[in-house]
């Protein structure tokens, strides 16, 4: 019975660790993009190229 609790505990800790890692990466990436302008926009590079083309 104790072994069952240990296994469940290990699985729960692993799930929490993976969730925290995912959350940390998302927040870090959004902060990086916010400094550049578009917070996490998948079209950021295309927008920057379009802006450069329209300026010339």
What does this protein look like?
The structure is a single chain. The chain is mainly alpha-helical and 56 residues long. Helices cover 84% and strands 0% of the residues. The chain is built from two helices and no strands. It has helices at 2-36, 44-55.
Individual helix count: 2
Percent range for β-strand residues: under 5%
Share of helical residues: over 70%
- Overall residue-averaged pLDDT value: 81
CA-CA gap between termini = 72 Å
Shape: rod-shaped
| H/E series | HH
The major pleated sheet works out as: none
| Tally of strands | 0
Class of secondary structure makeup: mainly alpha
Sequence stretches where pLDDT stays below 50 over 5 or more residues: none
Rounded Rg: 21 Å
Brief synopsis:
With 56 residues, the protein is an all-alpha fold.
């Amino acid at each position: 019975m104790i072994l069952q609790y240990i296994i469940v505990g290990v699985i729960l800790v692993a799930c929490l660790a993976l969730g925290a890692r995912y959350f940390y990466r998302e927040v870090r990436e959004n902060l990086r993009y916010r400094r550049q302008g578009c917070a996490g926009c998948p079209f950021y590079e295309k927008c920057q190229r379009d802006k450069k083309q329209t300026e010339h």
